[in-house]
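Why predict the complex rather than its parts? Because the way molecules touch one another can change local conformation, and only a joint prediction can capture that. The input here totals 232 residues.
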Amino acid sequence: DIQMTQSPSSLSASVGDRVTMTCRASQGVSTYVAWYQQKPGKVPEILMFDGSTLQSGVPSRFSGSGSGTEFTLTISSLQPEDVATYYCQKYDSVPRTFGQGTKVEIK
Amino acid sequence: QVHLVQSGAEVRKPGSSVKISCKVSADTFTIYTISWVRQAPGQGLEWMGGIVPMFGTANYAQRFHGRVTITADESTNTAHMEMSSLRSEDTAVYYCARDGPSPFCHGTNCYSQNWGQGTLVTVSS
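Output of the joint prediction:
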């Protein structure tokens, strides 16, 4: 099975900082990667799909890129409401494996 | 707007089974994959398996194959996940999630657009 590896596992940044996290697939998955945001104590929500397409309603400070085996999620200007754990998931085939998550905190 | 409503929290003893339901409020229940995802306390998301109700056959992550059964009842728009031989490590919140209409899917595989509220399953003697 294809593994999804996220880095870093956690990060702390100041409000207004640019934040980038990475998701690497052990084999190519084209652009079939989604990103989910899970705020503390809440249900995960879809943030982005097809590697870089924002879900409707997601602020434009979020952006994504990548194809094949390497994907990035960037928050251009970190806001307090962005405190959450972010998960990537491949959906090219089953199993639809998740990465282990990147926890984002405010410094 | 699609809503997924899951059954309530469960407490089970090791070695027993649990069955969780997920009712979907959507006319298109049969054509989109319902996935089950679990999250142990303080841990990440783990995809367990999924089913397209109109096809009736589920796919499972290897580690759950043989211990988890996912079914879908078209008459009630409800999906079920049953897990047997429970152990303490199965203590987790279990989510159902549904794919939706999207041009960015890959066949029957897609991202999950809508999620249930989660069901806490506690396995303890």
